Amino acid sequence: METIEADVVIVGGGPAGCSCALYTSRADLKTVILDKNPDVGALAITHQIANYPGVSSEMSGEALLALMREQAVSFGSDYRRAQVFGVDVNGEWKTVYTPEGTFKARALVVATGALGRPASFKGEAEYLGRGVSYCATCDGAFYKGREVAVVGANKEAVEEGQVLTKFASRVHWLTTSDPKEDDAHAQALMTQPNVQHWSRTRLMLIEGDDAGVTGIKLKNRTQETEQDLAVEGVFVYMSGSKPITDFLGDQVAFKEDGGVVVDDFMATTVDGVWAIGDIRNTPFKQAVVAASDGCIAAMAIDRFLNSRKGIRVDWVH
Ligand SMILES: Cc1cc2nc3c(=O)[nH]c(=O)nc-3n(C[C@H](O)[C@H](O)[C@H](O)COP(=O)(O)OP(=O)(O)OC[C@H]3O[C@@H](n4cnc5c(N)ncnc54)[C@H](O)[C@@H]3O)c2cc1C
């Protein structure tokens, strides 16, 4: 698998990650943005963003984010769709692991937002990594010819469900409501020959043994009793409000509320690692705050990589 070196690797392509990339690229630093999915971050799902300075109050979050991404790319940022599942922050070069390849940089920025959730289904935490997964692109190939369940109705669930149809013999798709009729992607997933859609259905329990997941219990809203389903994989895609930090392990310090600890320059407790945007669990989660964090980190990174004592302002041309 390929290994790519850069000056700066940014994990997360929301307003924090994109504004950071805009500044580091303009500072002539080779910058890679690794983004799981441009449609599932907090700004991407914001229907209308009326309070971002300088843009039309009619603009959707998705459109504003596309502008930010295009601007970063126009200055040279290398934007890639990839889900980061691990990092190693030891030493001068930080390593970032994705199913698409390994990335190395002297400056690592984490900007994955705060739409994460703690494992909440019975059995979810117990079988995490042994049948329970949050990444079909990472783990889908392990389920060739096997039955799996996909839980959730958001865009990520739909896309990851499609990925699983290439491997699994049957994909059971559980949603608590009916997907919208004008949602072309959801409708396309339901028409796949190896997809069985369970509408208005809740996941109640994930069961297993020493080898991993063996099945789930589910319950349809209209029925009194739970039903057993034999599956070997369960892919959960539900949003919450917890900083997304699972890929960091315990390699940086966290606050009690789960946010990453940073200083005034957005630097974490590990040299060469910065954290920006909602991953800090700031009291005021706003797009403009996330973008501001990205700018501060980028200027600090420029100083760090170029061993300058002061911050070089970006407005001297
Ligand atoms: C419903 C809603 C409405 C909102 N309305 C407003 C508003 O009107 N005005 C306003 O200013 N703010 C609003 N906000 C808040 C604002 O959207 C956030 O503060 C802002 O988007 C945070 O930016 P971020 O870059 O930190 O995270 P996000 O925007 O969440 O972006 C995080 C990115 O990281 C990616 N990612 C996650 N995990 C991984 C991984 N493992 N590997 C690679 N990539 C990963 C995601 O795909 C995503 O693209 C709203 C938020 C929500 C949820």
TrEMBL record:
* Residues passing through the membrane, by range: none
Could you tell me what this protein is called? Putative thioredoxin reductase
For the keyword Coiled coil, the answer is no
MF terms in GO: oxidoreductase activity
Q: What would be one Pfam family of this protein?
A: Pyr_redox_2
Span of domain FAD/NAD(P)-binding: 7-294
Which enzyme class?
oxidoreductase
Return the InterPro entries for the record.
FAD/NAD-bd_sf (IPR036188), FAD/NAD-binding_dom (IPR023753), Ferredoxin-NADP_redctase_2 (IPR050097)
Which controlled-vocabulary keywords does the entry list? Flavoprotein, Oxidoreductase
